[in-house]
């Protein structure tokens, strides 16, 4: 009899757990649908979008449009934000620092190649490279398709965690900074506005390809702080 009661109790817990997790999944899907639901034919975006670009709030950003997130004590993961990925566009090759290399904040450490040209990005932090993303090296398009996920670039060991936050965009100013970047892009050439809004307010996959007369190296270098 005791065994039956134990098994019955266990079964009840399983059913309750399944029901609760199913409800959580349903709520999450519902919230996501509401954030991206069409309103008058346009996509209604969540707060994590600024002028059409995805800017996750849990990340930290460098003025050169790289991002970082702390994975564990003294270890951060680094990548390029969606604005940078859209400007870089369909790159053919990516070069990353080697494992074990010491990098400094503001140092040129990332290189993107396209149509025989090269553009660079600077490091948002200082430390020793622990890991490089082999997937993005083998498939550079991942940088654009998933800049905050599979498109990450390097993992860095940061001995001085205080140095990690030095010269990063203050959290409260991130949205204003990104909006200013997009506005500055529009000011350079009004045609970019159409490229950014080509898909219901979301940026085109390859911004500068939409404006053939633009100078890919010059534009990226200005926003990546490598001019």
Count of the separate structural domains: 2
The CATH superfamily of the largest domain turns out to be RNA polymerase II/Efflux pump adaptor protein, barrel-sandwich hybrid domain
Main beta sheet strand tally, sense and closure: 6 strands, antiparallel
Put simply, the count of helices is 8
Uncertain runs are 2-44
What value does the average pLDDT take? 81
Rg measurement, Å: 21 Å
Distance between the termini: 79 Å
How many strands in all? 13
Task: Kindly state the percentage of residues in helix.
Answer: 25-40%
CATH fold naming of the largest domain: OB fold (Dihydrolipoamide Acetyltransferase, E2P)
Using the alpha-carbon principal axes, give the shape.
globular
Please state the second-level CATH architecture of the largest domain: Beta Barrel
Strand order of the largest sheet: 5-6-7-13-12-9
SSE topology string = HEEEEEEEHEEEEEHHEHHHH
Coarse structural class: alpha+beta
Proportion in β-strands: 15-25%
CATH class of the largest domain: Mainly Beta
Concise overview:
The protein is an alpha+beta fold and 227 residues long. The protein has 8 helices and 13 strands.
Can you characterise this structure?
- The protein is an alpha+beta fold and 227 residues long.
- The chain has helices spanning 2-35, 82-88, 134-138, 142-145, 161-165, 174-188, 191-196, 216-223; strands at 38-39, 42-43, 49-50, 53-54, 60-61, 66-72, 75-80, 93-95, 102-103, 108-114, 117-122, 127-132, 154-157.
- The chain has two domains: 2-35; 56-227, RNA polymerase II/Efflux pump adaptor protein, barrel-sandwich hybrid domain (OB fold (Dihydrolipoamide Acetyltransferase, E2P), Beta Barrel), CATH 2.40.50.100.
- The protein is built from eight helices and 13 strands.
- The strands form four sheets. The chain has a six-stranded antiparallel β-sheet with strand order 5-6-7-13-12-9. The protein has a three-stranded antiparallel β-sheet with strand order 8-10-11.
- The longest helix is centred in the N-terminal third of the chain and has 34 residues, at 2-35.
- The chain is globular.
């Amino acid at each position: 009899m005791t065994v039956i009661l134990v098994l019955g109790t266990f079964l009840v817990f399983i059913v309750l757990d399944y029901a609760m997790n199913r409800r959580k999944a349903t709520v999450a899907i519902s919230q996501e649908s509401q954030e991206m639901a069409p309103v008058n034919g346009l996509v209604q975006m969540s707060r994590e979008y600024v002028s059409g670009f995805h800017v996750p709030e849990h990340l930290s950003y460098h003025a050169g449009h790289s991002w970082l997130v702390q994975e564990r004590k003294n270890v951060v993961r680094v990548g390029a934000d969606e604005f940078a990925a859209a400007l870089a566009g369909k790159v053919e090759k990516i070069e990353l620092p080697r494992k074990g290399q010491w990098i400094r904040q503001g140092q040129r450490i990332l290189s993107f190649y396209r149509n025989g040209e090269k553009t660079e990005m600077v490091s948002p932090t200082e430390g020793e490279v622990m890991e490089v993303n082999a997937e993005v090296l083998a498939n550079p398009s991942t940088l654009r398709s998933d800049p905050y996920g599979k498109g990450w670039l390097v993992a860095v060991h940061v001995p001085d965690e205080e140095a990690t936050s030095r010269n990063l965009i203050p959290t409260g100013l991130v949205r204003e900074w990104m909006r200013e970047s997009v506005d500055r892009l529009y000011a350079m050439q009004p045609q970019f506005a159409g490229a950014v809004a080509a898909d219901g307010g979301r940026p085109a996959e390859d911004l500068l390809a939409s404006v053939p007369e633009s100078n890919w190296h010059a534009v990226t270098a200005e926003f990546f702080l490598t001019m």
